[in-house]
Design brief:
Layout (H helix, E strand, L loop, with lengths): L16 H4 L26 E2 L1 E5 L2 E10 L6 E8 L7 E6 H6 L1 E2 L20 E2 L1 E2 L6 E2 H4 L11
């Protein structure tokens, strides 16, 4: 009924491997729950297995699967578009995140990096290589456990 995490090649997601210096998707994908595998848990108790970030945005991944129709890697979890924004509980595309680039800009107000050299690094989504899985309420800002009624 549900699509579980398939054991298949992840090379199609590696468009920026050289610049990033590591695989965008971890080698242990089979250990991460697939689509709907944590649905019996409250959102705040869902285990977050991966964390990605870029510039001011963050993505916390609870479930990973490959869409059968598009072959894109999908995830379910939280994402936050800006530091002061609330984290949203949604589905998002890891394949698209891997390809996302924030290009260089001539506008100094928007530039990131050393603008004195005239070159600035392209910004891309990066995986937190030191991440340890934990419940969402412990690692996603603003996510709190609801009090249980007895």
């Amino acid at each position: 009924m549900y699509e579980n995490n398939p054991l298949c090649e992840t090379t199609s997601v590696q468009t920026q491997h050289e610049e990033r210096g590591y695989d965008f998707l971890p080698a242990n994908l089979a250990d991460i729950p697939g689509k709907f595998d944590q649905e019996e848990l409250a959102q705040a108790e869902t285990v977050i297995h991966l964390h990605y970030s870029a510039f001011l945005a963050d993505w916390w991944v609870a479930e990973v699967w490959q869409d059968r129709d598009t072959q894109k890697w999908m995830a379910y979890g939280y994402w936050r578009p800006a530091p002061d924004a609330a984290a949203l509980w949604e589905c998002f595309c890891l394949t698209d995140l891997e390809r996302l680039l924030i290009p260089r800009t001539a506008d100094p107000a928007l530039q990131v990096g050393d603008v004195s050299t005239g070159t600035a690094p392209r910004l891309m989504v990066r995986r937190d290589l030191e991440w340890t899985p934990a419940p969402a309420h412990e690692v996603v800002p603003g996510v709190e456990l609801e009090e249980r009624r007895v």
